[in-house]
Amino acid sequence: MRERAFREPHIEDRIEPRFWKRCDQYPQTAVGEYPVNKEEIFEIIVGHAREVLPELETHEFQASDSLKALGANSIDRADIIMMTLETLSLNIPLMEMAKAENIGELAGIIHGKS
Fold first, then answer.
1. What is the pLDDT of residues 91-100, one digit of tens each?
2. Based on the structure, what is the number of domains in the chain?
3. How remote is the C-alpha of 14 from its chain's centroid?
4. Which of 1, 19, 60, 72 could be bridged to 76 by S-S, CB 3.0 to 4.6 A?
């Protein structure tokens, strides 16, 4: 009897889940609990653009706006994209973002990869 006390506990003694939930009831996005649509990604990009370029604080952003035309140099643009990907917990190569001509296209590429 004493020897049994030092053995591995029986299955009944182990922690078991108290409830089960089907996996298909959880969102299948890379960003966590809530799916993110293209408009929300656009707003995240705009927020980071304003953070990197404070002079754009009052600018009314449009999907057709180009970060380059708004005064963002290549380092600024890379920072904005990296910050956006980090916010969304995504890992997308920056080369795929080079195809975007404007913020709307950038949001579309990120949305397509999320």
1. 889 899 889 9
2. 1
3. 36
4. 72
